[in-house]
């Protein structure tokens, strides 16, 4: 039984935020796609060492690399609690925090073409 002002929430999601595309951002200096890929690979290789569960890190990587609809499905299926709609701050069901840098979520506006 809830409070007088409480409402039933549709579906099984408690207070789940809907995943949205990250806002445009600019890297401190122009970088190539190869450099961006290297930064992303380094982050994902070391992410489990920041704490939390490897399975959640794997799900976050899959969500970050997927289109927005699939990302929402991945997050919901993994039980990830989205704090920031762009996935930059998330929690697992045990309360462990997962911070994702901008560069793993989207490309900067000042990316340069490689020759």
From TrEMBL:
<dbReference type="InterPro" id="IPR039869">
    <property type="entry name" value="UBTD1/2"/>
</dbReference>
<protein>
    <recommendedName>
        <fullName>DC-UbP/UBTD2 N-terminal domain-containing protein</fullName>
    </recommendedName>
</protein>
<dbReference type="Pfam" id="PF16455">
    <property type="entry name" value="UBD"/>
</dbReference>
<dbReference type="InterPro" id="IPR038169">
    <property type="entry name" value="DC-UbP/UBTD2_N_sf"/>
</dbReference>
<feature type="region of interest" description="Disordered">
    <location>
        <begin position="1"/>
        <end position="23"/>
    </location>
</feature>
<feature type="domain" description="DC-UbP/UBTD2 N-terminal">
    <location>
        <begin position="16"/>
        <end position="114"/>
    </location>
</feature>
<dbReference type="InterPro" id="IPR032752">
    <property type="entry name" value="DC-UbP/UBTD2_N"/>
</dbReference>
């Amino acid at each position: 039984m809830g409070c007088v002002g409480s409402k039933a929430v549709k579906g099984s999601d408690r207070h789940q935020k809907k995943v949205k595309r990250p806002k445009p951002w600019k890297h401190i200096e122009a970088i190539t796609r190869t450099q961006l890929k290297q930064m992303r690979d380094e982050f994902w290789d070391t992410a489990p060492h920041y704490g939390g569960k490897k399975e959640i890190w794997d799900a976050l990587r899959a969500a970050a690399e997927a289109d927005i609809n699939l990302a929402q499905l991945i997050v919901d299926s993994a039980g990830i609690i989205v704090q920031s709609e762009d996935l930059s701050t998330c929690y697992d069901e045990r309360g462990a925090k997962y911070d994702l840098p901008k560069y793993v979520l989207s490309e900067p506006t000042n990316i340069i073409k490689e020759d």
